[in-house]
């Protein structure tokens, strides 16, 4: 009876669960960035009132892969530019967003680097920030979502929900694809949305052209206003 039940119970855990087991049991032995580790399941199965235990040991030497490591384009999360992996600037990005193809980068609203991805470079970018007045406890959250249809290089741009970063009371969006963006400001059960035109800003030589869009809101209020100021790229 037990012989039949236990293997079924173990197989029902699924392979993903062993990643968690490895992280729980061998935290000290697994380098921090490694989420999964190879384990030999070599012990007997123990059953306690609180759960199931499986004897396992960490496999120290993973078999070397004969495949070359994949190459990815590397994007910067805030300036939203993507680069080749070998290009110096691409290497320097500390926590790059990795894209398997340029289409995926364009889809997520990233812009090709002027130097290493010139075929996918669009000169104009959109600058958006949100200034929030009023009660700041807890701190409001600000997001933006592209709501008009934008195509670039034959790809429909769909960046999803973009989170703005807060510095004191001003929230900064990463450099956006110009277009109509729905801005949502939320604090607990208060929320306000407004759709704004994020215009084009670009740089030529030493000059910055175009405008940045600035949304002004106050926590608890239904009034929201939008102004533009000269862009600062
Ligand atoms: Zn580059």
Structural features, described:
The relative contact order is 0.12. This protein has about 230 residues and is mainly beta. A hairpin with a 2-residue loop joins strand 14 (about 180-185) and strand 15. It starts with a helix and ends with a strand. It has three domains: about 1-60, no CATH class; about 75-120, no CATH class; about 125-230, Immunoglobulin-like. Strands 7, 12, 13, 16, 17 and 18 form a six-stranded mixed sheet that branches. Strands 5-3-4-6 form a four-stranded mixed sheet. It has helices at about 1-15, 15-25, 90, 100-105, and strands at about 40-50, 50-60, 75, 80-85, 95-100, 110, 125-135, 140-145, 150, 155, 160-165, 165, 170, 180-185, 190-200, 200-205, 205-220, 225-230. The structure holds zinc ion (ZN).
User: What's the overall average pLDDT, rounded?
Assistant: 84
Which class do the helix and strand fractions yield? mainly beta
Query: Which parts are unreliable, with pLDDT below 50 for 5 consecutive residues or more?
Result: 1-5, 7-32
Strand content: 35-45%
- Intertermini distance: 70 Å
Per CATH, the class of the largest domain reads Mainly Beta
CATH fold call of the largest domain: Immunoglobulin-like
Largest sheet: 6 strands, mixed
Query: Which hetero ligands occur in this complex?
Result: zinc ion
Give the ordered list of helices and strands: HHEEEEHEHEEEEEEEEEEEEE
The number of helical runs is 4
| CATH architectural designation of the largest domain | Sandwich
How many structural domains are formed by the residues? 3
The Cα radius of gyration reads 24 Å
- The total count of strands amounts to 18
- Report helical residue fraction: 10-25%
Give the overall shape: flat
């Amino acid at each position: 009876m037990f012989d039949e039940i236990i293997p079924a119970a173990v197989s029902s855990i699924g392979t993903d669960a062993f990643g968690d087991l490895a992280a729980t049991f061998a935290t000290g032995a697994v380098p921090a960035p490694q989420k999964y580790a190879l384990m030999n399941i070599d012990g007997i199965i123990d059953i306690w009132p609180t759960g199931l235990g499986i004897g396992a040991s960490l496999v120290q030497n993973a078999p070397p892969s004969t495949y070359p490591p994949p190459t990815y384009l590397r994007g910067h999360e805030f300036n939203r530019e993507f680069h080749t992996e070998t290009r110096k600037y691409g290497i320097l990005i500390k926590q790059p967003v990795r894209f398997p193809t340029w289409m995926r980068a364009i889809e997520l609203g990233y812009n090709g680097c002027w130097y290493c991805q010139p075929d996918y470079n669009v000169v104009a970018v959109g600058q958006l920030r949100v200034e929030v007045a009023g009660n700041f406890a807890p701190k409001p959250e600000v997001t933006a979502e592209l709501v008009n249809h934008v195509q670039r290089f034959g790809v429909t741009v769909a960046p999803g929900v973009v989170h703005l970063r807060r510095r004191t009371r001003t929230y900064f969006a990463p450099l956006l694809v110009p277009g109509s963006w729905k801005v949502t400001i939320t604090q607990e059960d208060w929320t306000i949305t407004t759709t704004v035109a994020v215009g084009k800003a670009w740089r030529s030589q030493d000059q910055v052209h175009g405008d940045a869009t600035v949304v002004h809101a106050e926590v608890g209020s239904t009034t929201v206003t939008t102004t533009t100021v000269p862009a600062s790229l």
